[in-house]
């Protein structure tokens, strides 16, 4: 049977449409959701992400503020901007785009964000809430992966999920979310990383394989069990002379070869990527509902 290509673009657009009603109701009540995004420096990928976040806010009727600080902005400057936004009542969500320049301490910055406005879910308080299974804000990319599975009718319950990658943004939180005793979870989870022995053999045991390592085409067809579901979180730019830009986006999965074995697979682009922004919008609306006393 041909594999199902999981259409993250269409699923994320469905979620954004569902959110429009909430945004309208909240706005009519005087609680228009508001998001502030902070970018430090000129990382090209980050610039694209921040632009997409602003665009998505506009499309949904969410109030947005974008702060673009120079690469040499001081840590104090950034911390005082966060402090100002923590106190600003029109702002329900604050997102500091990562990675930050070397001279800025990421941990200090994430700790400064009011946990009630931490729509990225990176503050240790929100990480703790996620771990104990009582989340306020789930991190957007892993939550988007869970939502993709749910909306494709892939129930992780009892399945073996193998995650390749252990980052704080994707690998660790997706493992934590899918292992919970909860709907859309209840999986048996293995996390693999650069020091894992026999990574190919472990990957082959996965009913659901999640690749989040940042290495182009790392997952080959011989690492995938017949009928597995493969989720590709990779966003890698590789040289491609046939493109005007001279580069092309590829995931962590060798898509063309791997798709011959899967029952469902996400493409890059158009798989997990668009879900991250949809979940950020969800978290921002959730935070505004909290301000409005609805939740
Ligand atoms: N950089 C890559 N992914 C993310 C994300 O989800 N949030 C933030 N703030 N930065 C990122």
Poorly predicted ranges: none
Q: Which overall shape is indicated by the principal axes computed on the Cα atoms?
A: globular
Main sheet: strand order? 1-11-8-7-5-6
Structural class: alpha/beta
The helix tally amounts to 10
Mean pLDDT: 97
Number of domains: 2
| CATH superfamily (homologous) name of the largest domain | NAD(P)-binding Rossmann-like Domain
Give the CATH architecture of the largest domain. Answer: 3-Layer(aba) Sandwich
Straight-line N-to-C gap: 44 Å
Measured by DSSP, the beta-strand proportion falls in: 15-25%
Helix content: 25-40%
User: What's the CATH C level of the largest domain?
Assistant: Alpha Beta
Describe, in short, the structure shown.
By secondary structure, the chain is an alpha/beta fold. The chain has ten helices and eleven strands. It has helices spanning 8-28, 44-60, 75-87, 106-112, 124-131, 140-151, 171-179, 199-203, 255-258, 273-291, and strands spanning 4-5, 34-40, 63-69, 93-96, 160-164, 188-192, 208-211, 229-232, 236-239, 247-250, 264-265.
